[in-house]
Design a protein that fits this description.
With 362 residues, the chain is of the alpha+beta class. The chain folds into three domains: 1-169, Alpha-Beta Plaits; 173-229, DNA polymerase, domain 1 (Orthogonal Bundle); 246-345, Dna Ligase, domain 1, CATH 3.30.1490.100. It has 13 helices and twelve strands. The protein has a five-stranded mixed β-sheet. A four-stranded antiparallel β-sheet has the order 9-12-10-11. Strand 2 (34-37) and strand 3 form a beta hairpin. The longest helix has 22 residues, at 260-281.
Length: 362
């Protein structure tokens, strides 16, 4: 591990955030399986309540698939303005404890409370107080992971979900990682996990047994990262409001898709997630990239740089769908899609005039 002083890191993750907001605001939805999204043929699930998850419903799942999983599923249209407002409430609570806040999305963030502004002696007590204040202010529950680095804090926040917290101390870090399946590791996606499994790596303990040379050979530049996290090591600092050069989101489908409508629904959902971040950060770009991963793990990207920055959700959706249509009809199933917006420029800069694609946007 680093020779730097031991840090106190908290990862706060709201529980089924969008769906929980909807259940809070409509008592008739409490205890029912709820999907935030649209039930239309090309709809996609943006978020699922815990009741819906019990039926196998997951975010980024095609609405038609979700309905087959759970006949009683209730679809609720997303209200991103409400989610952003609640997120600002939560962020204000964080700021009472530390200036080192690194948001990952509307519903989760890393906090470095090594220099606790309220002088609470332990990070665990700090996390408990933050969670209590979030519930008091919003009526929503949050889970928290507490550890000496970001990787372990993120893993720990999943360990007592929902509405719980878990501490991974320096003395238990390596053993905690050793016992977990690599599929649970943040940063190890399904494709990488499958590759690790084929190499006989199923748990953190299996990963730790591999040499750095072996991991470099099979995973390239990611090898040193896997070598470190297998030992519970992660020296990345919590960076407050880090400047971003791009915003992206991707999802792996529950099954390989060949239906263009379902693939486009996934693309639209990813474009919406990217746009939500861009609006919140007031960061806008000119280059749209669509990523496609096929059932045989081949990967393709389609990219377009526009003459002006993208200033509406509708334009981002339209360009993204236009790009993915260049691979239709897919010869084999598509397992993953992603959308990224990059080439950021100031919203008031010389290229800020909104691109007109004839979509009727103001």
């Amino acid at each position: 591990m680093s020779e730097n002083p031991i840090r106190k890191i908290i990862h706060v993750d709201m529980d089924a955030f969008y769906a929980s907001v909807e259940q809070r605001d409509d008592p008739a939805l409490k205890g029912r399986p709820v999907a935030v999204g649209y039930a239309a043929k090309r709809g996609v699930v943006a978020a699922a309540s815990y009741e819906a998850r019990a039926f196998g419903v997951r975010s980024a799942m095609a609405s038609s698939t979700a309905r087959r999983q759970c006949a009683e599923l209730v679809f609720v249209p997303p209200r991103f303005d409400v989610y952003r407002a609640v997120s600002r409430q939560i962020r204000a609570i964080f700021a009472d404890y530390t200036a080192l806040i690194e948001p990952l999305s509307l519903d989760e963030a890393y906090l470095d409370v090594s220099g606790n502004l309220r002088r609470i002696p332990t990070a665990s007590a700090t996390a408990a107080e933050i969670r209590a204040r979030i519930f008091e202010a919003t009526g929503l529950t949050a889970s928290a992971g507490i550890s000496y680095n970001k990787f372990l804090a993120k893993l720990a926040s999943d360990h007592r979900k929902p509405n719980g917290q878990f501490v991974v101390t320096p003395a238990m870090g390596a053993a905690f990682v050793a016992a977990l399946p690599v599929r649970k590791f943040h940063g190890v996606g399904p494709v990488t996990a499958d590759k690790m499994n084929r190499l006989g790596i199923f748990t953190g303990a299996d990963l730790r047994r591999q040499s750095l040379a072996f991991l470099r050979q099979h995973f390239g530049k990611s090898g040193p990262w896997y070598h470190a996290i297998a030992r519970g090591e992660d020296d990345r600092p919590v960076v407050a409001d880090r400047p971003r050069k791009s915003a992206g989101s991707e999802t792996t489908f529950s099954g390989d898709l060949t239906d263009p409508a379902e693939i486009e629904a996934g693309i639209e959902a990813m474009a919406d997630e990217v746009w939500t971040w861009c609006e919140k950060a007031q960061a806008f770009g000119r280059t749209v990239t669509v990523k496609i991963k096929y059932a045989d793990f081949r990967q393709a990207t389609r990219r377009r740089t526009l003459p002006a920055i993208v200033m509406s959700r509708e334009i981002l959706r339209a360009v993204s769908i236009d790009l993915v249509r260049t691979v239709f009809p897919p010869v084999i199933g598509i397992r993953l899609v992603g959308v990224t917006l990059s080439h950021f420029e100031p919203a008031g800069g010389p290229a800020a005039a909104q691109l007109d694609l004839g979509l009727g946007t103001p």
